[in-house]
Amino acid sequence: MVKISKNFTSIAPYYDLLMKRINYREWMFYVESFIKAHRKTTRSILDIACGTGNGLMNLRENYEIYLAFDRSIEMIRVFKKKIDRYASHSPIIFVADARKIPLLDNSVDVAFSIFDSLNNLLRPKDLKKTFKEVYRILSHGGVFVFDLNTVHVLKEKWGTKTRIEEDEDMVSIWRTRYHAGVSELHITLFVRKENGRFIRIDEIHRERGYNRDEVLSMLKDAGFRITEAYEHLTYSPPKKDSFRINYVAVK
Ligand SMILES: C[S@@+](CC[C@H](N)C(=O)[O-])C[C@H]1O[C@@H](n2cnc3c(N)ncnc32)[C@H](O)[C@@H]1O
C-alpha cells in the first residue's frame, strides 16, 4: 500500500527543485512595491508560512529584523540549511501555525504570505482567525501583503486533471480533484537517489478557494483600516475569472 505523508513533510527536500520555474525575485519585488507605497521605513518584516524561505531570501530592501515561520518543521529545516550557506542577514525562523502566532501585540511592521499558502486554511473561520492574529501582531500602520487562489482557478483550471513533469532525476505526477470548494492535489514524486535507485513519495495537499469579497470583508472584520485587492502581479483590479488575487491590508 502507498504511504501518504503529511503535507509538506516528505516533499520538503525536493520543494525547491519542484518550484525551480517560479520567479520569486519578481514576486518579492511586487510585494515590496506595496510595502513602499504604504510605509516610509520598515524595521521588521515577517514571512508567514515561509516554507523553505524563498520569499524572505528574495527580499531586495534592507530591514533590521527578519522573521519567518511555517507549520512544517521539515520545510523549516530546509530553510535553515540554506540560511547557513547563503544569507547575509540572520532571520529568526520558527515553527508555528498562522492561526496562533507566537509574537507580541504590535511587534512587527510588515507581514507577507506568498504562493497560496493561506489557501491551506480549509475553513473560512481559520482564515478569519489568521487575519485577526496578523492584525494583533502588526504595529500601527503595519502592512500585510498576501495572495490567495480563487474558487475559479481551483474549480476550472485545476479541476480534475493529471499532469506529469519529468526531469533527469525526478518525475512528478500531479492529480487534482475539486469538491465542495476544496481542491485536493495528490502529488507523487519519483526521485533518483545517489545509488541510481528511485524512491517514491506521496503527499495530499488541500486548498480552499477564496473570493475577493469574502476576503475583503474578513479583513475589515479583523480591523484593517485599508484593504486592497489586485489581479496578481499587476496593479489592476481583479477580474471575474482571476486565478490568483493579491491583497494588501493596512492596520
Ligand atoms: C505552497 S507552500 C509556500 C511556501 C512559501 N511561502 C513559498 O512561497 O515557497 C505553503 C506553505 O504553507 C505552510 N502552511 C500551511 N498551513 C499553514 C499554517 N496554518 N500555518 C503556517 N504554515 C502553514 C506549509 O507548511 C507550506 O510550507
Overview in brief:
The protein is an alpha/beta fold.
Outline the fold blueprint.
Elements: E1 4-5, H1 15-18, H2 24-38, E2 44-48, E3 65-70, H3 73-86, E4 92-95, E5 108-113, H4 124-137, E6 138-149, H5 151-158, E7 161-166, E8 170-179, E9 182-192, E10 198-208, H6 212-222, E11 226-231, E12 244-250
Parallel strand pairs: 1-10, 2-3, 2-5, 3-4, 5-6
Antiparallel strand pairs: 6-12, 7-8, 8-9, 9-10, 11-12
The chain binds S-adenosylmethionine.
Structure characterization notes:
The longest helix has 15 residues, at 24-38. It is built from six helices and twelve strands. The strands form two sheets. A seven-stranded mixed sheet has the order 4-3-2-5-6-12-11, with helices on both faces. A five-stranded mixed sheet has the order 1-10-9-8-7. Strand 7 (161-166) and strand 8 (170-179) form a beta hairpin. It is of the alpha/beta class. It has two domains: 6-150 and 209-250, Rossmann fold; 153-207, N-terminal domain of TfIIb, CATH 2.20.25. The mean pLDDT is 95. Helix content is 26%, strand content 34%. The chain binds S-adenosylmethionine. S-adenosylmethionine binds next to loops.
